[in-house]
Amino acid sequence: MIYVVLSILCSVCVGVVLKYAKQNNKSIAQIIATNYVAAFFLNQIIFKPTLFPKIETNVWTIVLILGLLLPLVFIFQAKAIAYSGIVKTDIAQRLSLLLSLFGAFFFFHETITFLKVLGLFIALLAVIFTLNKQSKSTDKEIKTPYLLLVLLGFGIIDLLFKKTATITTLPFTTLLQNIFFIALLVAWCIVIYSIRKKQEKFNFTTILWGLSVGILNFGNIYFYIKAHQAVVNNPSIIFISMNMGVIILGTLVGKYLFKEKLSQYNYIGIVLALFAIYILFLSK
Fold this sequence. Notes:
Layout: H1 2-23, H2 28-47, H3 57-84, H4 86-94, H5 96-106, H6 114-130, H7 144-165, H8 172-197, H9 206-230, H10 235-256, H11 264-283
C-alpha cells in the first residue's frame, strides 16, 4: 500500500500549497491552469505517451469527462468555500466517499461483506468526528448547490479513475496525458474568461505556485491509479484508505503547521479513521 501513502502525501501537500497561495492572494484559477500544464509536460517527459491515440469511443468518453471535471471541481470547491465555509466544503468532499463505495459495490460488483460494511460505518463516523468544528464564515450566504457539486464531482472522479485503472488497451499514462491536455484547455479558458470579463490580472509569480501544485497533483493521481491497479478486486479499500489518510494527515498538518485547534471530537475521529482502515485491510 505504499502507493496509497504516496498519493496521500501528494494530496495533502497540494492543499498546503493552495492554502499558502490563498494567504498570499494568488489567483487560484491561474494556479490550477498552470498546474495542468506542469502535469502534462511532466507526464510527457517521464513516460512519453501518445496524444490522441486510437481508442474506443467509451474510453474517450471517460477521458473527456475527467478532463472537464478535474479543473471544474477545483472551481466548485473554491465557490463552496466562499459561500458555505471551509468546514461544510470539507464534509461534502469527504462524503463523496459514499458515491465511491456505492460504485464499488454496485457498478464494479465488489463483494459486500460484514467487515466492509462495518468499516464503512466507522469511516463515516470518523468523518463526522474529525470535521467537527465551527466555521468562521458566519456572514457568508449558504449556497448548497456548490456543496452538492463538490460531493458529486469528487465521487464521480474517484469512480472514473477506478474505471481508468481497469483499461488494458492503452497504458494509463497515455490516458492521463489526454486527461491533462483536456483539463489544461478547460482551465486556461476559465483564466482567459477571468482576465477579460472580470479584469483579473495575470501574475507571473503564480507560475511557480502552479508548477509546484502540478508536480504534486501529478504524483497524487499517478500513485492513486497505481494503488487501484495493485488492488483491482477491492477498490473500496483504496477509496476509504485514501479518504481517511487525507483526513488524518490533513488534520495533523492543520494543527502543527497552521496552528489550528483540535477538539476532543477531532481526536476521536482520527482514532476511528485508523480503526476503519485496519478493519478494511482485514476484510481484504
